[in-house]
Design brief:
120 residues, alpha+beta, 3-stranded antiparallel β-sheet, 13% strand, globular, disordered C terminus
Length: 120
Amino acid sequence: MRGGKASVLEGGVREPCIVVWPGVTRPGIRSEAMIQSIDFLPTLAEAAGASLPPERRIDGRSFAAVLRGQATAHRDRIFTFFPHNTPASGQLPACAVSEHAAEAHCGPTVSNPRAQPACG
């Protein structure tokens, strides 16, 4: 797995999520469903039986159906934008689109819009 913390490569965006929800999740079950951090608010709200404010736009989507074993997939793709220079890792501003087994990494980003994108 290439990349790491503060990277748009697989090692920076593909991280494990461990969930223990007694009576809902089954021990030892593993899922390849893609989720993103924005999905936690609606998932936790659903788990708590709370409603999200209808006047607020919430970009995340609940992945409770995956946790309950009612679905195997959650998102078709995930868009990642990392707008920072990170001297420790050498990461420059970049973006990525992850689609299950395929990934496209693009740079530069809005910080240098005239440069040719380098996707691979």
